[in-house]
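Q: Can I borrow your eye for a moment on a structure tokenisation matter? Would you mind producing a protein record, from residues through to fold? Write it directly below this note and I will take it from there.
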Amino acid sequence: MGSKIIQSIDRALQVLELFTMEKPEWGVTEISQALNLYKSSVHNILSTLEEREFIKKDPISEKYRLGIKFLLLGNIVDQQIDVKQEAIPYIGKLVKEFNETVHLGILDGNEVLSIDQEDSRQSLRSHINVGQRAPLYCTAVGKALLAYQPKDKVSSVIKETGLKRYTENTITDPEELKEELKKIREQGYAVDNIEHDEGVRCVAAPIRDYTGEVIASLSVSGPASRINEKSIPVIAKRVKEYCQEISKKMGYIT
């Protein structure tokens, strides 16, 4: 076992991995025998998991089943997969229309995580790798997410990230950032005005799920020489339209 493995967490995960379609219920003694653990240890693990709603005890059989928390987490995973599937055709449309890189991102802690992208066909272009993370406060795809988060989440991002400066245009003042997020909510799209990467501008809009919650954002990015004052309104209009269409496919009704 590696030195970075936390034994108590590892044991809890071993317990959870016992639950399968073939055997969805387990008792304390069964788990103890299967994992060669003391019953007292198993009981403590199960009590903790039950408290956090990861498992539930059947009052009749006194055996344990997986709890509602897995359903909620599973829905989040399904939603991320769904939004990617729904966004793929629109990513292709945006690349074809503007010949710039298009990027789909989701909130991941205090960062934005890229879950899909398609590069521009031009030699001079912006490039984002799937799986790449970036700050929320100084990227268009990130700000389009952050603008619709609760105030305490915004405050947490400001406190924990420290609003590091990447370029001379990076917003590092908390009050200025809050004004920027307000502007994004009013206009329905965000702009990264060379705030994260030198010479690169991005335009992004939010994507909502059936509850109205912003779950993802879609951006068009490229050299500042091409994404400029003249092209930004045109790009923003189309990105907003496509994000609204994706939102509708996710079940969002305006």
Observations:
- Residues 7-66 form a domain with the Arc Repressor Mutant, subunit A fold (CATH 1.10.10.10).
- The first helix runs from residue 7 to 17.
